[in-house]
Amino acid sequence: QRLGQWPVDTFQALLPPFPANIQPKTENKTLVQRDMCEAAPIIWQGRLCQLECYRPATGGTPKDYYLVVRDAENKTELARFAEGYSLACAIVHNNTFYAFGARFEDNNWCDVTLFKSSDLKTWEQKVVIPQDKTEHLFNSSVCATPDGFVMAYETNDPAYPAFTIKFAQSADLENWTKLPKAIFGKDHYTACPCVRYANGQYYLMYAEHRTPRWFFEVYMARSADLENWELSPKNPMLTATDLDEGIDASDADCMEFNGKTYLYYSVGDQLTWMNIKQVTYPGPLTEYLEAWFKKP
Q1: How far apart are CA 260 and CA 200, in angstroms?
Q2: Separation in Å, CA 65 to CA 57, 79, 227
Q3: How far is 229 from 211, CA to CA, in rounded Å?
């Protein structure tokens, strides 16, 4: 009864303005692919394409696991390769397509293997990140840097809570050196990495398990040295909000094309069904990445 006598309108007028949503605004949310957990935009010969990772939810045979390169606009299949592999990423360098995937073997994921082709027809392959004896390797991501290339890869190393992200570097995309001091997520679940480099900073998109709920979101962090990390104050980057998105936003990947940033990510229940969605940012990738740390 007493609260009714308080000058609520006066107090409301004295409050500071509610902070605006200062996250970089994306648009054109669309469904890209049903029944898929991992896909990535990639530019091949001037065309926006996508690398699609096919695999069953559980089990299966090697023939159930493979990669497809598809034209993102007309949906034409350009290549099908890497039987027995999935959880892949891709980068194009010197007119050559490089894909990195994990091998499904003995009901688990193993190593990071490179698949290389200049025509999407003939492929060379070799293991570039062999797993340690006590771990298995899962999703990976590669980006160019002024000194060569950096890879982020997901591990279930028992020294840390599953999952954790490790890093490696290369001068040529074929010979890689692990960086033992560069480990992200030593104390909690960090999975599905996407690494990018811009203006002296490494940017890492990754999946956070928002325990104790069964709920997953994409977060952003950055580092100048791959060892000391700063989380974006604007996290989460992506979260499940629509009725068809379940409890998951994860497996993010991005690419700049014709001045716009294309962001792919998965939605679903993290158990039985997953779909791929896409949003676009109306500006270059560097601007999008830096906006997550820009102060108002």
Answers
A1: 21
A2: 11, 14, 34
A3: 21
- Any idea which residue has 């989380």 for tokens? 231
The number of helices, as runs of H, and strands, as runs of E, in the chain is: 2, 20
Tell me how far the alpha carbon of residue 168 is from its chain's centroid: 16
How far from 192 is each of 15, 125, 175, CA to CA, in Å?
A: 41, 23, 22
The Cα diameter of the chain in Å comes to 80
Question: How far is it, in rounded angstroms, from Cα 102 to Cα 30?
Answer: 28
pLDDT, tens digit (0-9, with 9 covering 90-100), for 105-160 = 999 999 999 999 999 999 999 999 999 999 999 999 999 999 999 999 999 999 99
The letter for the amino acid at 152 is: A
pTM for the structure as a whole: 0.92
d(CA 39, CA 266): 8
Which residues on adjacent β-strands are paired with residue 261? 281
Q: Sort 279 into a burial class: Cβ within 10 Å, 0-12 / 13-18 / 19+.
A: middle
